[in-house]
Every structure is written in C-alpha cells, then in structure tokens.
Amino acid sequence: MKLLVVEDEASLLQSIIEYFTQEGFLCEGAMSYQQGIDKMEDFQYDCVILDINLPGGSGLQLLKHLRQNKKSEGVIIISARSSLDDKIAGLDLGADDYLTKPFYLSELFARVKALIRRKYASGSDVLEMSNLRIDLLLKTVSWANQQVFLTKNEYDLLVFMLTNKNRVVSRQAIAEHIYGEETDNLASFDFVYSHVKNLKKKLKEKGCGELLQTVYGLGYKLSI
Amino acid sequence: MNKTLEQKNTRSLLIWLPIVLLIGSILFYVMLTFQAHHMQEKQLELKLQNVWKAYSSDTESMPMHMRGEYDINQVSRVAAPLSDEPRDTSLYYRETGQQVNFQILTRQAEWRGDSYQVTTYVSSKEISHLIIKVFFAEIVIFLFLLLGIVIVNRRSSRLLWQPFYNSLKKAGAYDVVRNPNLKLEEQTGITEFNQLNSELTELIEKVNKVYNNQKQFVENASHEMQTPLAIIRSKLEFLINDPALTERTASLLGDITAANERLSQLNKSLLLLAKIDNDQFPEQNQVNFSHVLEKILHNYQQHYEDFPLLSKSIQLDIIIVANVSLVEILLSNLVGNAVVHNIPEGYIKVQLDANKLVIENSGYPISGDPEALFERFKKGDDASKTTGLGLALVKEIARLYQLKIQYHHQNRVHRVTLFLT
To answer: Transmembrane residues, as ranges (chain B) (predicted)?
Structure first.
C-alpha cells in the first residue's frame, strides 16, 4: 500500500510515517503545497493524508487539484480546524474522511484501513488473527468457528484492537474511538475498562485465553 | 434615594420656589404696608392744612368739630409740645355699633394771638382692607406662578433631555454579544449630548473591538494548540509501544497521557465555546428535539454499563429551530452531566413536553452557588472527571437560542430545567 502524507509539521509527519511504515505501508511525506502537488502528479498512491493549513496553499486546494486531475486516491483530511464548514467543504470536494487534530495514530490507522477496504474492496471484508475471525459485513465474530455474541461497543472495540493488533492502544484512544470526539468524555475512560473486561470474559468462554492483554494500566494489546 | 431627573428637578423646584415666593410675598407685604402708611401720612398732612386754611378764613360758620374728620381745640399757650407723628386711635359709632380705627395727626397753630390744636382723622379701615385684598391677590398670583413654572419646567426639561433619553434607551439595548451595533444620533442640537454620544460610540467601538479580539484570540490560540497536542499524542503512542517499557515509566506515561487527554478535551471545549461566541453555527433547521434526545439517551445507555435507572416521559416530535450539532452538544452535555455526577444505584428522570425539558438525577450534595456551575471552569466536587466546560457550553447554546435554563438542587436531587418557549 502506498501512502502520501502531506503535513507541514515535521515532527507529526515523522510520527505518522513511522507508524504506517511499521504497519507495512510504503510512505512518502510532503511538507508544502507545492511538494504535495509534485508528488501527486508523479506517483500513484492508495491513500493521501492531507493537512489543510500548508505553506504555499490550502490542503483543500490540493484536494481540488487532485480531483480535477481525475485522481481517485482515497483522501483523509487531518486538520486543526474542526469547524463544521471545513468538514463539509472537505467532504464536498471529495475527501473520504475527516479527522480533527489532535488525533490518535491508532485512530488514523483504523480510518485509513477502513477507507482502503471501502474504496478498493481490496482484500476481504474479514479480519483474521489465529482462530479469531471478524466478518465486517455481517458484523459477526467467531473464535474457532464458534460465534461470539458481542454488544455494539464490544464489537467496535474488538475491530479497533484487531486493526491495531500487536500494538499497545491507550485507553484514551479506545474511548475516543468508541464515544466519538465531540463530547466532554473524560469520564468515559473508566467505562472502557468495563467493556474490555466483558469482552475478555466472552472471549475466554470460547477458550481463547489471553488474547487481549492489559499493559501496565496504560492500555491494551491484542496479540497471540 | 434615586429619583428620575424629572422628579428630582420638580422636587427641588417645589422646595425652593415656595421659599423664594414666600420671601417675595413678605417683602411685598412690608413694602405695601409702608407705602400705605406713607400715603396716609400725606393725606393727613394735606387734610390738616386744608382744614386749618378753611377755619382761619371762615371761623364763624365752620364748626370746631366734625366726627371722624377733624377737631379744633383752643388751648393755652403752655400746652405740652406735641408729637409730630401720626397716632392710632378708634372711635365708636353708635349708629352702626362699630369701633372704627383711625389715624390722627395733631398740630399746633396760632391765629390772632390764640393757640389751637388741630387734629385730622383718616380712617385706617379702608386702607387695611386694601392691603389684605392686594396681599391675597398676590398670593393667588404666586400660586399660579408656582404651578406655571413647574409645568413649563417639566415640559422644557423633558424636551431638553430627550436626546439623552434616546441615547439611554439605545445604550440599554446594547449587548456586546447579541446586539453590538449602537447607532447614536451625532447631531442632537445640544453640544453636551453630541459629546456624550460621540464618547459613548467610541467607548462601545472599543468594547466591541476588545471583545472581538478576545474571541478571535481564544479561537486562534485553541487552533494553534491542536497541532502540538497531536504531536504529543503521537509520540506517547510510540512510547507506550516501547519494548523497554518498565512499570515505573509506564506509570509516568499513564499520568502524562491522562493530563494530555484533559488538555485536549479542554481545548476542544474552549474552541467550541469560541465558535458559538463567534457565531459560526449560522445554519439552522427544524430539529426534532424528541428524536435527538432519545438518540442521545440510547447512546449513553449503550456506552455506560452502569447507566443509572432511567425513567422518561418524552413527548413525540417536539420541534425547535436550531443548529442540529449544537442541539446534540447541548443534550449530550446535560445527559452526560446527569450520568457522571450520579451516585451508584442512582436514577435519572427525563421529561419533555412542548414547554420544557426537565432532567432530574440523584447525586451528591453540592456546595456553593448552583448557578455558578454554569460558569466556565466552575466544577462540582469530582473535579478530575470533567473539564468544567460542559455546563458552560450548555449555557452558551441556551443563550444563543434564547432558551431559559434553571438549575435546582435539593435533598441530593439535582434538576435542570430547559424552557423551550
């Protein structure tokens, strides 16, 4: 998978590239409007992560340029401007998703994965790890062909963890993923704990042991 | 005691004008009496001369006495010297049974070697009647004058102060948030009021400018903070994935993550507040309030395993005209507040009808002014769980759509009422 990240903040750009490279993406970075245009014209990407405030022009203009040139890359906007207008303008111009800063890399990664799945129907709609199998179309979960019945929150949590498998995902990132970013949800971190507990219990009943591990109270990790 | 300008003006007129008029009438009375006496003296003098002239030319036929007019008495030469001043006396008239006051003047005169005392009389009755009548006429005139002055003064001061009242009314309607445009008359016809209006206009322009700058500043500052916050978040995600993580560093990272999360949340809420202030939610639709409320309650029940016992009576299809995102934020914060500040095994009661939304929940007693909970950064007792901006957002949104909000707390029961009409 080829990914272009257009972000003028070097430190953030480096984080994003590092994260996606670890997940097996081929990443390139651009730090200005012009660099972004050049890269897009020269190469084909599967997905573009686009900041709106760029030196030399707006990310929205870049998006316009991209769509006018009939390029069909999936685009996710990352912006410090969370204004609804920007969001609507971005989506109108053909962005596929919109994420407001500050975001979690695990969330960005989940969004990119979901976008690629939707956009290219590439791979399958099934996530698998060991005996764990999630059908994203039917929204069913099974372990060794035994169906596991989950609530919506537990299902969302498991999909998120499986997407970010073998990584420690913070409780805060999970809370934001489940509850959305709009509400004042500091209290919700406590509730993540109970969702994880229930999910663990249900998985254990089907005999899949310590699939979901707690890491020093910081977060959780899904690995074999 | 504060009174209106007009009352104050009339009051001082009513206090001071009668005093001035009273002093005036006393002066008038004194002068009137003085003039009347002077006139009487002259009359007596003239009469005396006339009587004496008549008597000395025609002694035989003229009587020596005429009651109420004159007396001529022959006296010995050694009579005591007489006062030159007129004196008061009174005569009794049997026919009318009246005692009549007179002024008399007596002079000594010589004629053909004999001495005479001539006394003339002038009645004081008429003159004192005249004085009293004139004085009363004057009192009536003064009373009319008083009334007239007060009325004219009120009228003219009302006219005079009209531009001031106009400015006052407009300045009263001014609101830095809702009604920041103040158009005051530049030419009122009165220099001081022109000056007042121009000073006011300038002052308000300054206030508006400062307010707008501040709003803009909050929004810009919040925006600028988003990127560093994003960087911190991303670096923390790498750190917690570090294989060399120890328990000690993990606990430090946990604290940093929590603090950073709180900072992000605060920043987000501040940004939202600034945006509402900056009127960046102009699009309004008919929002199905009942529907949004049900959805939010459902979401919260889904998300929170120990959601308090919920009883609700929600009237269907209550519509309000507002921005749908703001309505969601409003309701989400109200419901969230009732959930977060609840007690274990507590309850939430939600009631919605066409007039109002009532959300009641069990909770811990709170200290301090309940209204203050709606101020920015005012928190209840579980400070770490909230940013202190949730209810401020609720207040701001309610203010934007001119909905009245009321908070009531009694016996560990908290009730928020939002009036929809």
So the answer is: 12-32, 130-152
